[in-house]
Structure formats: structure tokens, C-alpha cells
Amino acid sequence: MMGGRNGGYGVLIGAAVGTLFLVPANGLAQQEVFRVDPCSMSVIYATALAAVSGCAAEGYAPDQYKLGWMYANGIDVAEDDAEALRWYRMAAEQGHVSAQHNLGLMYAEGDGVPEDDAEAVRWYRLAAEQGYVPAQGNLGVMYDNGDGVPEDDAEALRWYRLAAEQRFAPAQYNLGVMYDNRDGVPEDYGEAVRWYRLSAEQGFTPAQYNLGVMYDNGNGVPEDDAEALRWYRLAAEQRFAPAQYNLGVMYNDGNGVPEDDAEAVRWYRLSAEQGFAAAQYNLGVMYNDGNGVPEDDAEAVRWYRLAAEQGHALAQTNLGVIYAQRWYRYESEAAQGDSLAKANLGLVQQDLVLAFMWVTLSAAQGNETARTNKDAIEQWLTPEQIAEAQRLSQEWIDRHDPEGGKPSGPIRIPNRPR
């Protein structure tokens, strides 16, 4: 589902994200531990390590799990994924559900063991079938993405629903995404909103963001800028980059708040510094136009370049235009007899090559402005310069997609297309 009004980004996160969590051991302190359990009488231990290591060695599954968690997190011991894996496995083989889940997580992420999705699925399933909620959510993710099992929307939906109905926020979010995207269910924005809200009210940032998008676009709820702003802000204040970007768009366009370019820049920058390409592009536009910040071509180029390197088509176009304008300015001034321009003209010849390279990459993504600019810039180039720009373009493609496909990176809907 593409963006909000006025060109806001507003793209829903369609993939299952943020659903793989290590579950902390219950009641595990880092200092003194008082324990009464089948492995020992009432004893006060000096450290958590001393409290669990003896019983773990004797085969007591809860302490094997705790010891694995300590190694996984570097609590009282040096962090050691291999040791974490060893102790989790001992507990998991005795049916300890948290250990089974965390063992699955280690296989899924390749921590302390080669990544193995099928093995991750096996351990998630053992825990999920015992009713362990995070494992149910993660098993849904594996079916959703086709990792370790054939992709199966119906199975993903089943496991998400089991976890979501037990208030597991990531599963509630993913269930909302499935209704939003018609994955295994009829499209139902109202149902998507319901699950997003349940997750968002627990503080899950992607759900807060997506709920903001629903209010922004009027999908499943009445269009409401104030509500969109509220949910974007909650996610943005938790450093969720797409929400920071959308909040910037709201201030930029004056939707739900008075138009405020300086505040827009602030949120764009927070998102851009996390590598969010659309925000990098918009921040470049703000510096290019002098909105909310002093006009600064160097800063505009810097942010355009960061977005362009991620495959942002309009950033590639704008970067190419700036390089071409720089060359054209010097060439025009040199033609009028300006000695300084003549001296610098040779230095900016490469800018024209780079300009052609960037508009070529953008045009390959279907950007019509880039195609027009490409035709114009090509008239200024020698055959050798064209060949050099094409070589640089192919190098860029190979670097970002070794198999030689189109430039990688999402094509975003920018705030202010040029």
C-alpha cells in the first residue's frame, strides 16, 4: 500500500519483522540469589553463576536454561554463544520450552552455530506445541517467510493467531499485516486496524507506525491527521526510522500540525542518521532549497549521495542534476572569459561523467525525469565520457547486486519530487 497524502512515505511494513526475541530468565538476579529447589536446600549464593552451575551440571533443566541465558547475555560470565547453545540444548532436550525457543532462535540467527532454518523450525515447533507464545509467533514468521518450511500463509496465520490471542504484540502486528496485505485472508482494513491497535497499545513500534499510516490514509478508520500524528510520534520517540520520517512529512506539509520546516528537518535528520533512504533524500531537498536550514549545496549532495547509494531513484536524479549544473556553470562562465572558471573547468569534467552515471541509474528504475535529464546531459559528453559513465554505472550495479540485476534498494515516494 503506497503512501499517505501529499506524497508522504506511508508505506506499510509488509514483512514479518521484530518477532525473534530472547526471553529473559525469570527472577535471575545478578548478585545474591536465595533458592529453594529440588537440587539444594535453602542456601544463599554469592553470585548467580554459583546459584545455577551446580544444579545445571546435575541435569536440572531450569538451571541449564538459566546458565545458557547467562552465557548468551554475558551475565556473571564472558558472553559465549557456543556455551549458551550447549546449555540451552541440554535443557531443550528435557522439554524446557524457553530453552527450545531460544535454541531455535540461535539456529535462526546463526549464533554459536551455522544458520539452519530447518533446525530453528524444529525447536520452535516443539516449544510452540507446548503453548509457548513467543515460539508460536516465531513459527508463524518461518511459515510467513518460507524459512525452513515451504511458505504457507495459512500456517503463518494459524500460529500468529494463537500467539496474538494471548496478547503477544509482535504476532498481533504480523496478523494485522496479513489482513492489510491479503496474505491468506481477504483484505480487511478494519481487522488490520484492530490487530495493529492491540499491538500498538502495548508499545510495539512497527504497529504504532502502521496504525498511524491507517489513520493517515483513512484505511479501516476515518482519515484523521491528529491520530496519525499521535501514533507516528509514539513510534518516532522510540527511534523507529519510518515513523520519524513520516512525522517529518507531517510537519513539512502542515498535516495535523502547523507547517514547521525546522521541525521537519529535525525528524528527517533523526531518521536519515539511521540510514533511512527516503529521509536522507528529503533532508537533501531541505538543504538544496534552504527550508528549515540554511541553503547548503555540499550538505544537499552529502544526503542525496547517501540515499542514492541505497538505490533511491529521485536522490540519484537530483545528485546527477547537481553535478551537471556545477559543470554547466563553470563551462558557461569560462565561455564568457572568466579565468577562474577556465582554470576549474578541467576539475569538474568528471562531474559531468558522474552526472550521467547517476541519471542513468535512476532512469533504469523508470524515473521519467532522469530519462529526460539523461538525454540532455548526453549531448554534452564525448563518446569516451559516455563510455566511462556507463562503466561506472555497471560497477555500481555489480557492487549493489552482484548478479547484475537492477540497482538494489526500495523506490520510495518522496515528499518533494523535483
Write structural notes for this entry:
The N terminus and C terminus are likely disordered. The radius of gyration is 27 Å and the shape is elongated. Among the domains are: 176 residues, Serine Threonine Protein Phosphatase 5, Tetratricopeptide repeat; 90 residues. The protein is mostly helical. 48% of the residues are buried. It is 62% helix and 3% strand. It is built from 20 helices and two strands. Helix 2 runs antiparallel to helix 3, helix 10 runs antiparallel to helix 11 and helix 18 packs antiparallel against helix 19.
Question: The CATH topology of the domain at 21-196, please?
Answer: Serine Threonine Protein Phosphatase 5, Tetratricopeptide repeat
The CATH fourth-level homologous superfamily of the domain at 21-196: Tetratricopeptide repeat domain
Strand order of the largest sheet: 1-2
- Secondary-structure arrangement, i.e. CATH architecture of the domain at 21-196: Alpha Horseshoe
Give the C-alpha Rg.
27 Å
Share of helical residues:
55-70%
Portion in strands: under 5%
Count the helices. How many?
A: 20
Instruction: Look at the helices and sheets and give the structural class.
Output: mainly alpha
Q: Assign an overall shape.
A: elongated
Largest sheet: 2 strands, antiparallel
Uncertain runs are 1-38, 402-418
In CATH's first tier, which class of the domain at 21-196 applies? Mainly Alpha
Secondary-structure element order, as H and E? EEHHHHHHHHHHHHHHHHHHHH
Distance between the termini: 23 Å
How would you classify the quaternary structure? Answer: single chain
